[in-house]
């Protein structure tokens, strides 16, 4: 998997470096695969400031520092939830771009009731730019879904950077 996402990461790195901009990442159901893919690029510090794996409510509190009511009416693995996290990770890490993925990989029940195989990747950029993509694999294969969600999240970022 890292071979394929490494190619995506190289393209993203090139786009961000040309712009002189950086990204912060909130991995959800991807479990860190998005950040790991970006870190396969030598000199990643040029374009990647960090992020974290948001896999629990505690991680959400620590990484995003948002009031509880910010999530009112939202469910995990939804467009508005992922976009809120993309904005927060961007702002909290002082980056120009924020990428967040929230999904349900399967193998167990998602706390929000989201169906297995559903992921939302959101990008929050400069000047109010926002973009969200939903991926649905239709499957319950945890590892395959994690890989598909990571590729989709990276593609979402690459597409957003290309405008």
Topology overview:
Blueprint: H1 2-19, E1 23-27, H2 33-38, E2 48-53, H3 57-64, H4 79-93, E3 97-104, E4 118-124, E5 130-136, H5 142-162
Parallel strand pairs: 1-2, 1-3
Antiparallel strand pairs: 3-4, 4-5
Helix pairs in contact: 1-5
In CATH terms, the superfamily is: CinA-like
Name the CATH class: Alpha Beta
CATH architecture identity = Alpha-Beta Complex
**What is the 3D form?**
globular
Structural class comes to alpha/beta
What is the averaged pLDDT score? Answer: 91
Description:
With 163 residues, the chain is α/β, with parallel strands linked by helices. The chain has a single domain, classed as Alpha-Beta Complex (Maf protein). The protein contains five helices and five strands, in the order H-E-H-E-H-H-E-E-E-H. It has a five-stranded mixed β-sheet with strand order 2-1-3-4-5, sandwiched between helices. The model has no long low-confidence stretch (mean pLDDT 91).
């Amino acid at each position: 998997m890292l071979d394929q996402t490494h190619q995506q990461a190289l393209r993203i790195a090139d786009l961000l470096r040309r712009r002189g901009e950086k990204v912060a990442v909130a991995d959800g159901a991807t479990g860190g695969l998005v950040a790991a893919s970006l870190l396969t690029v030598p000199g990643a510090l040029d374009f990647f400031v960090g992020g974290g794996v948001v896999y629990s409510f505690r991680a959400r509190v620590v990484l995003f520092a948002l009031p509880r009511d910010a999530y009112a009416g939202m469910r995990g693995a939804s467009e508005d939830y992922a976009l809120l996290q993309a904005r927060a990770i961007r702002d909290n890490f002082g980056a120009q771009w924020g990428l967040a993925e929230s999904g349900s990989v399967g193998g167990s029940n998602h706390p929000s009731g989201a169906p297995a195989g559903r992921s939302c990747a959101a990008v929050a950029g400069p000047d109010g730019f926002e973009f969200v993509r939903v991926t649905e694999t239709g499957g319950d294969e945890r590892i395959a879904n994690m890989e598909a969600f990571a590729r989709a999240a990276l593609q979402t970022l690459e597409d957003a950077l290309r405008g």
